[in-house]
Amino acid sequence: MWKIKKNYSLFFIFLFCSLFSQNLNDPQNLQMEVVFQDYFKNDTITLKINNTTIVNKAIISSNDIGFSKLQYNFTENSIVSKYDKQKQYIPLVKNVKIKKVVHINILCNGFSKKFRINLQKGKHIGFDLICGKLKINQSEKKFIYD
């Protein structure tokens, strides 16, 4: 009897975990993606979405052109997930409501820059650091990196 209950418990845990991980990667469930992309070199980043701090004082670097390994996805269930070096999505406990217009505040090396983003123009948001200034890229399609 105990063995059957234990097997059912393990099955439901496995089912929940697999559904949850698919939910994070499902592009239809994705409401917004924020990626730090090109020209970062030991730069300190603080990211706020609608006044909620997502990351505080992260030090990031990228190749001249490429992905800095700092990426956050926001789903319809207010789940924020961080893309890590092993190419996995790690859920974070954040309660961020994503609406059609999102306010992003980035503190980069002590300088603050605010962005008001209309997600109807694209839910994939990328940032480059060019000549010490943040540049925004917005796309309807997911960014591709080598």
Brief summary of the model shown:
With 146 residues, the chain is an alpha+beta fold. It has one helix and ten strands, in the order H-E-E-E-E-E-E-E-E-E-E.
Task: Tell me what the structure shows.
With 146 residues, this protein is α+β, with helices and mostly antiparallel strands. It has one domain. The termini are far apart. The protein is built from one helix and ten strands, in the order αββββββββββ. Helix content is 16%, strand content 46%. The longest helix is centred in the N-terminal third of the chain and has 24 residues. The strands form two sheets. A six-stranded mixed β-sheet has the order 6-5-4-1-9-10, with helices on one face. A four-stranded antiparallel β-sheet has the order 3-2-7-8, with no helix packed on it. Strand 7 and strand 8 form a beta hairpin.
Shape: globular
Question: Mean of residue pLDDT?
Answer: 78
Task: Report the end-to-end length measured between terminal Cα atoms.
Answer: 52 Å
String of helices and strands: HEEEEEEEEEE
Biggest β-sheet: strands ordered side by side in the sheet = 6-5-4-1-9-10
Main β-sheet description? 6 strands, mixed
| Computed Rg | 17 Å
What portion of the residues fall into strands of 2 or more residues? over 45%
Structural class: alpha+beta
Total strand count, please?
Answer: 10
How many separate helices? 1
Tally of individual domains: 1
Low-confidence runs (pLDDT<50, min 5 residues)? 14-26
Helix content: 10-25%
